[in-house]
Amino acid sequence: MLASDVARHIVAHYGDAWFLTNLKLNLLVYWCQVGALRDAGAPLFADEIAVGECGPVIPAIWAEYEAFGSRMIRLRDESQVKALGENTESLVASVMRELGWLTAADLLNLSNHPDGAWNAAREQGYESISVSHIAGSADMRREVSERTLAACVDGVERKYPNALRLLEHS
Fold first, then answer.
1. What is the model's pLDDT at position 77?
2. What count of other Cβ atoms lies within 10 Å of the Cβ of residue 74?
3. How far apart are CA 116 and CA 17, in angstroms?
4. Which of 20, 69, 100, 163 could cysteine-pair with 96, CB 3.0–4.6 Å?
5. In degrees rounded to 5, what are phi and psi of residue 29?
6. pLDDT tens readout for residues 151-170
7. According to DSSP H, which parts of the chain are helical?
């Protein structure tokens, strides 16, 4: 399977529900790879995961969605994506339930822990994050902190329902 297949699936099935940028999409696909290693003990895809400037990046996905820049990815021909198989689609759904609501900044924080694969590969001078980097890292057991930007915004929305609307027009 190609990492691009996973990315297209995410855009086609979750692009309307979550604000997906190129960076966020890359990070979500990275976490799908982590999930596959954790759950099945085997990688989901063989594509390179580069040690990007700020976090893990899959060059093939970055190039495919580069035209969107930091804007929201709009559905193109992803609606005609091929099925990934029941196990893979279940894995992607699980990752999206757990992480899809997070912002790109939250996902970067999750991916940039000192005991994570990206940091280990970067500190060792590697240009790519290997399966062994991921398997030997704390990313395999990482949990989402309750203190995320997305959670804070959600809390403000619940506690002060009109506050964000007022800021929107100021």
1. 63
2. 10
3. 28
4. 100
5. -65, -40
6. 445 554 565 566 656 666 66
7. 3-14, 22-40, 59-64, 86-99, 104-111, 117-123, 131-135, 149-159, 163-168
At residue 110, what is the residue type? L
pLDDT per position as a tens digit, 20-39: 999 999 999 999 999 999 99
Of 33, 6, 34, residue with least CA distance to 20: 6
Place of tokens 């100021």: 170
Express each pLDDT in 62-118 by its tens digit: 999 999 988 888 776 655 677 888 999 999 999 999 999 888 999 999 999 899 999
Residue 70: what pLDDT?
A: 87
